[in-house]
Amino acid sequence: MAASGEPGRQRQEEAAAVVVVGSCMTDLVSLTPRLPKTGETIHGHKFFIGFGGKGANQCVQAARLGAKTAMVCKVGKDSFGNDYIENFKQNDISTEFTYQTKDAATGTASIIVNKEGQNIIVIVAGANLLLNTDDLREAANAISSAKVMICQLEVTPATSLEALTMARSSGVKTLFNPAPATADLDPRFYTLSDVFCCNETEAEILTGLAVSSPADAKKAALVLLGRGCRVVIVTLGAAGCVFLSQTEPVPKYIPTEKVKAVDTTGAGDSFVGALAFYLAYYPNLSLEEMLKRSSFIATVSVQAAGTQSSYPHKKDLPLYLF
Ligand SMILES: Nc1ncnc2c1ncn2[C@@H]1O[C@H](COP(=O)(O)OP(=O)(O)OP(=O)(O)O)[C@@H](O)[C@H]1O
Ligand SMILES: *[C@@H]1O[C@H](CO)[C@@H](O)[C@H](O)[C@H]1NC(C)=O
Ligand SMILES: *[C@@H]1O[C@H](CO)[C@@H](O)[C@H](O)[C@H]1NC(C)=O
Fold first, then answer.
1. At CB < 8 A and 24+ separation, what contacts does 251-259 make?
2. Using a 6 Å cutoff on CB, does residue 284 contact ligand 3?
3. Ligand number nearest to the C-alpha of 178
4. Which atom of ligand 2 is nearest to the CA of 153?
5. What pLDDT does residue 307 have?
6. Is residue 264 in contact with ligand 1, taking CB distance under 6 Å?
7. Domain containing residue 168: CATH number
8. How much distance in Å is there from the Cα of 40 to the middle of ligand 3?
9. Which of 100, 196, 263, 300 gives a 20 to 30 Å CA spacing to 38?
10. What's the gap in Å between 202 CA and the centre of ligand 2?
11. Domain region containing 280
């Protein structure tokens, strides 16, 4: 294999410890003085393109901490798709199962942000919705040799369910992030989740309970645990997170450090990616310690601008995290 001289080839020899089956989106961001009204054309003062999509974000954070990662996803056969594949390579993520299709455009999120930081967003999931079970079958070896597989809900639920089923049947730990959440989530998502990690809004949608404090989050987490997940985590933004597990079903609260947040976009994905890294590489740490460290990493990410651009690398983090 080494004889091919292709750098991508050598990486295939060592199995990825963290496999993400999920989404890629190109963020098209315009900064404007205010949000336009119907039929109105306004001028913005800045435009930039960013790499996003929950699946890809989580994969990038895990990779930057030093995890061997592979991204199972679908982009268009277009320039955004080509650029996304290049972005994965830059982050040392295996693109062996990053498929390109002619049948849809790469997923995009067109975002307009006004002076107050309020936004309007249009997502066109495009190629993400064409990731299918045939694609998963091609990636079956990578999935079954992983330590941890992560899924979200930005690809079709059928694809996520199949990926979780494949991982579970090979004894691969499943980390499921039900984002964006829907009230009628298929109950199999709970029973297939070793770790079920959601934010306040998602916990509310899934349980019907209001969640705005650690005490509320504990109640919601108990309900979610009752649906069959082995571990439930509810993240609470600047307030940290709560968690509980089938083996220790008493909810615990973990606060975060108080920091000056610059941009919290993608904090939840940084947290999930970091958690996957710890589950894969430090399986003997207590869950509480993994969550403290993941929360610390997410807290670092909110102190820099952008989504993936704010995710820290191992070399920029304190040694005690590793
Ligand atoms: N303002 C903040 N200050 C400190 N830490 C934060 C802040 N916001 C988020 N975090 C960290 O990030 C973790 C995840 O944040 P959050 O619960 O907001 O996820 P999320 O809503 O999925 O994020 P997003 O949708 O913005 O990507 C928190 O548990 C915390 O560790
Ligand atoms: C939770 O995540 C969803 C995306 O699934 C996002 O729309 C929502 O704003 C987040 N909630 C909070 C409180 O950050
Ligand atoms: C975790 O603990 C088990 C049992 O104590 C041990 O066999 C294993 O080597 C440890 N794994 C790591 C990665 O430290």
1. 251/217, 251/218, 251/221, 251/222, 252/288, 253/214, 253/217, 253/218, 254/288, 254/291, 254/292, 254/295, 256/295, 256/296, 256/298, 256/299, 257/296, 257/299, 259/299, 259/302, 259/303
2. yes
3. 2
4. 5
5. 94
6. yes
7. 3.40.1190.20
8. 62
9. 263
10. 7
11. 18-24+52-105+127-176+256-321
CB atoms under 10 Å from CB of 74, counted, come to 26
25 is in an annotated binding site: yes
Residue 44, classified by CB atoms within 10 Å of its CB into exposed (0-12), middle (13-18) or buried (19+), is middle
* In-domain check, residue 10: no
> Is 128 labelled as part of a ligand binding site?
no
Summarised one tens digit per residue, pLDDT across range 4-29 is: 444 544 445 689 999 999 999 999 99
Would the CB of 302 count as within 6 Å of ligand 1? yes
Could you tell me the pLDDT band of residue 3, with boundaries at 50, 70 and 90? Answer: very low
Q: Is residue 113 part of a domain?
A: no
Nearest residue to 213 (alpha-carbon basis) of 192, 238, 195? 238
Nearest ligand for residue 181 CA: 2
Give the Å distance between the CA of 236 and the centre of ligand 1: 6
Is 261's C-beta closer than 6 angstroms to any atom of ligand 1? Answer: yes
Q: pLDDT per residue over 37-94, tens digit each? A: 999 999 999 999 999 999 999 999 999 999 999 999 999 999 999 999 999 999 999 9
- 117 pLDDT band, cuts 50/70/90, is confident
Residues carrying an active site annotation? 269
Region 31-37: what's the mean pLDDT? 95
Q: Is residue 286 part of a domain?
A: yes
Residue 249 corresponds to which amino acid? P
Overall domain count for the chain: 1
Average pLDDT over residues 181-185: 96
CB contact at 8 A, 141 and 14: no
| pTM of the predicted model as reported, rounded to 2 decimal places | 0.95
**Ligand 2 atom, smallest distance to 179 CA:** 5
